[in-house]
């Protein structure tokens, strides 16, 4: 209930400031890893990237109509997939189902109006919520599968993260946008309860379809 109230408190003021709303499902490839929080070491990752399919939902609130001009926007994103990392020995890996939420700022610009294409850059903050049940899968001890670890990871149930993205929107139909985007993210809070400092990192290649609601257009029709 508290989460619903919090989301409502954020969403409706943003909606009131917006000229265009877009929302729809997302689908993509997700490559994750568990890295040492010290990026200055030679090999921050404790293993190799774990690949999965991610699915989610995206809502974008544009301050102006992005089909007519460059504009800023607030983005609300959700995705679900399995985070983790795999050992050099393929039968050993960490994998934990994750619900991820983030809010960001997008700049949409460089439009080609004749071809109905526009590019965008995005940055935001978010939270990952982990399922901490049965997250190690393997035939050997964790410290044998991942020699970089001094002891097995005792996974926390959440982490905070930074998200960066870039992509292209294609106005394929009158009221629909198709998009493709590349996202990168790194956590900045420790995911383990024991010694050491480890974070999740990931790359995503996403696509999806969003429905367009233009509030200004509706207002002008009412005035007429």
From TrEMBL:
Keywords: Signal. Residues 1-18 form the signal peptide. This is Outer membrane protein beta-barrel domain-containing protein.
């Amino acid at each position: 209930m508290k989460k619903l109230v919090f989301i409502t408190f954020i969403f409706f003021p943003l909606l009131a400031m917006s000229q265009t709303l877009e929302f729809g499902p997302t689908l993509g490839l997700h490559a994750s890893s568990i890295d040492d929080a010290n990026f200055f070491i030679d090999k921050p990752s404790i293993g190799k990237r774990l690949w999965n399919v991610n699915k989610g939902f995206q809502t974008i609130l544009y301050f102006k109509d992005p089909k007519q001009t460059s504009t800023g926007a607030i983005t609300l994103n959700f995705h679900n997939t399995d985070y983790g990392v795999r050992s050099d020995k393929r039968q050993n890996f960490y994998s934990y189902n994750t619900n991820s939420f983030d809010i960001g700022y997008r700049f949409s610009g460089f439009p080609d109006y004749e071809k109905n294409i526009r590019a965008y850059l995005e940055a935001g903050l978010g939270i990952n919520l982990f399922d901490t049940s049965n997250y190690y899968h393997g035939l050997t001890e964790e410290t044998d599968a991942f020699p970089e670890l001094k002891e097995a990871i005792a996974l926390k149930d959440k982490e905070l993260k930074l998200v960066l993205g870039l992509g292209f929107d294609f106005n394929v139909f009158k009221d629909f946008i198709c998009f493709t985007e590349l996202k990168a993210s790194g956590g900045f809070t420790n995911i383990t309860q024991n010694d050491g400092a480890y974070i999740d990192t990931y790359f995503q290649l996403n696509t999806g379809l969003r429905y367009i609601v233009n509030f200004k257009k509706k207002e002008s029709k009412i005035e007429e």
